[in-house]
Structures are given as C-alpha cells and as structure tokens.
Model the fold of this input.
Amino acid sequence: MTVSSATTGTSSTTSSSSSSSSGIDWSALIDAAVNAKLTQATSISTSITANQAKVSAYQALQTDLKTLASGLTSLSSSIINSLATNAFAARAATISSTGDVSASAALSMTVGSGAATGDHTLQISRLATAQKVIGSSQSSQTTALGYSGTFSIGLSGGSTSAVTITSTMTLQDVADAINAQSSTTNVGASVVQVSSGSYELVLTGTKDGADISYTSTSGDDILNKLGVTDSSGAFSNVLQVAQSALFTLDGISMTRNTNDISDVLGGITFDLLQATPSGTTINISIGPDTSQISSALQTFVTNYNAYRDAVIAQQATNSDGTASSSAVLFGDGTMRDITNRLEATLTGTVGGLTMSDLGLSFNEKNELVLDSGTLSAILTSNLSGVTKFLSAQTTTSSGQLTVVNTGTSPQSFTLDLAVDSSGTLTGASVGGDSSLFTVSGTSIIGNAGTAYAGMAFTYSGSTSQSITVTSTSGIAAQIYQIANTYSKSTGSLQTLITDLQSRDGTMQQKVDDIDSAAAAFKAQLQSQYAKYQAAIQSANNTLNYLKALLNAGSNN
Done:
C-alpha cells in the first residue's frame, strides 16, 4: 500500500490551504468545485448590474421629460380668464401722467391673470382717511388715574366692544385695554408724549371712511375725563376726519371707503397714494405681459437641451466606433422614437409660422437657442400668431358654449347638450356616451380618466342642442403631450423600467438559489473531504505503528 509519509496532522477543516498529513489542498479542491457552481450566478449578476444601469438611464430620461413637460404647462394653454395660470393670460400695467403729477407717486396697482386689456384714465380728487382724535394733557402715563367705568367703542356701522377701566389703571393701561379689542372694534389707541410731563391719548380708526363711535355705559365717563370727548359727548379735538376716497375713472365719478380699490375693474387693484392736482390725469394701459412668454420659452430651451444632452451621452462611442461602456441605452428604440417625435414637432409649421419666426434655431453644436430680439419683435407684431403656434386652441360653433379650460389634451368632437322644460342643463354627452362629462349647474367638466379630462365649458343656452367643439395644438402643446406621455407613471419608459426591475428580481432569486445551493454543496464537500482526510490520517497512523514494530523486531 502506498501512502504519503508526510508528518501527521490532526486538522480536517478546509479553511487551511492544505492538509499537513496528506499534502492535499482540500480548500483549493472545494473552492474550485464551488466556483464552478457559482459561474452561472456571476454571469446573472453581471446581467442584473447591466439592467440596473439601464433603469437608472431610463429614470434620468423620465426626469428630463417630466421637467420638459412641466416647463411647458404655461405655454400649452392660452385660455384667458381670472383662473388661468398660463403665460398668455399674464397681464402687465404701465402708468404715465398728463400734467404736473408723478404717476408712481399717486398710484400703484396690481393686475391679475386674465384681466381685460385696454387703456384707462384716472383722476384722484381725495384719498380715503380714517378718523383720528386726541385727548387733553395728562401729567403721567404710568400713574394710576383713579377712574372707574365702562364704555363701548367701535366704528360707525361696525362691531363694538365694551372696555372696562379700574381705578388702578394708568393712561397706558387704558390704551392697552382699547387695543386688546381692536380686532373687533377697528379702533387703535396710543399715548403720545407732547412734552416733558405732558401725555395725551390718541384714538385712530383702522379703517378708512368711518367715524369712531363711543358711549359711556357705566361709572366714570373715561374718555371725557381724559379730554377726548366734551360734555356733549362729541370728540374735543379731531386730528383727522374720516372720509371716503373720491376719484374719476374713465370719466365716471366714484367713491370708496378705502384707498385699496379692487371692485372697479375685474382682476385689477388700485392703491391710491395721493390726490392728483386739478387738470392732471393718470394714464393706465393694461396689456399682455409678454415677458412671461419669453421666460417660458427660455425655460423650454434649457429643458430641451438638458434632455438632448442626456440622449447624446447615451450615443457616445469609442474611437473604434463601438458603443461606450457608459452608453447603456445605445441604439435604444424608445429613446430614438421620443427624440424623433420631438424633433419632428419642433420643425413643424402651425398657422404659417415656424420656430425660426420666434427666434428658435439649432446652433453649430445642434443645441436649441433663442434669439430674444426676434422673439420680442414677433410678440409685438403678431402675438395672436405666436399664441396659436405654441398653445392649444379650442373653439365652439355656438356663442352659448364658452370654453373655460382646454385641458392638456384638447379634443375635437360634437357635444350634445340636454336641457329640460324649465331650461335647466341636465346632461352632456359625446356620441351618446353621457359618462364623459359632469354637469354642475351651467358648468360642463370633462371627467378624469377620459380623453376629455381637463376640458371645461359653461353653457348659457336654454334649449337642447348639439355644438361642435374644435381643438388644435401648437408645438408647445404637442411637445408637452409627447414628454408627458412618455414620462408619466403609465408611460412606455416606466413600462421598460418595471420590466427590467421585474427581470432583475427574477434573476436575483436565481442568484440567491445558486448561492444557497453552492453553500450547501460546499458544506457537503467539506464533510466528505473531512472523512477522506480522517481515513488518510488513520492509514498514516497505522503505517507509523507498523514501522515502529518492524524497527523494534530488527533491533532484537
């Protein structure tokens, strides 16, 4: 029997590189066998890593497209009303003056979205003011007055509150007690130091055009004691009378009990600052705020180029023409389809205009650029053409059906309206389907989940009729639709992402199964080889014993 005569060892673990008794590297044998089992798992893990890189790239495209769509929302619709938030509904006001008056010193104003455009003239005869009264001199504001009583205070025609004063209260305490009720009474109080040792109570209405009302109801007549009122109950010293504002807008004389006037022209607030001298006029011009359109277009250019740069990065090649390792979506059909659709839309014609008419073009690096001068000129000369070129447009065949909102995907269709014998609108349908719109009073609203979602109308008619609704989409509306369709949670990019993640999940389970099987196989080999090692160890021990016997016999 031939057996290794290496030095005897007792270890049977495979954690060492070889067995000292057998000379056999059990660990290497086990690792080789296990690694052979793990080869498939390594290959699958490589596929998972590649898929994860694709998922990240698709998600980056999703983000870029969402940003592109978001930036186009203000250009995709051109509905003009007070609720509109699109760039075409934005308004700006310019003011100038005729005569010796500063327009900005006499008037400030705010203009809301959808306000009617046009020119107006304004003369301010008088500002609205609040009443202000003052009492007589008191020697201290911190010494107890010694007066006790209750009074009612407020503004004429408004709410009043009872104020109670005790004998230990000071002049400042009286002012504080009045101010504690000012949210109800709209009357404020303060103590002014007229001179050393001379303090006076001042009452001021916090609303213009209304007198302060005061009644002593019990005990001392507090305000009379402080010299604010005389023996008849009238105010002793009126510093400022309450009066309403007087002004003339477009030749119409008007009055208001405030200098902040928001109920004369819809969506417009005037803040009257000072009266205008006789013979002078404030000239007001309200028009579209085209700077909002310019800003939105510049945002579009930035966002489009960001998407374009991401696509170019996925088309990178090595010097030999092969795809770069970072270009994980090289040749991807979905990415190519999105890009082709965007480029085709950009180079289209709407209403006789192209993107070059707005100053949009591609430079030598194939980046989208905007010429602000060209854009400014066409916004001045052909705003309606720009609006049609960019936004969705919806019109109806009847003046009784008014478009309130076009939605994000405006449709063309015939809307059948049902009105009962009392003239009440009872239903709206398309092609006999009444589930597409909800009727609420005179409003007709496209239902979520339908092609008409976001579309809204109001109907002023009193009879049933069928009305044709016609919609067209400009390039901003079209690009919005493309970007939104591909980037939304139910879009094709998300479908690709979900599919890759699902496949990765399946493959990872295979890797886990292979790893588990390999671990079990390793344990089996370790047990099996430990037995081999033990047998070899036993044989070596027997051999050594026999040798010892033989050596002992020969010595005798």
Notes: The CA atoms of residues 53 and 328 lie 7 Å apart. Residues 1-20 have pLDDT under 50 and may be disordered. DSSP finds eleven helices and 25 strands in the chain. The two ends are 26 Å apart (CA to CA).
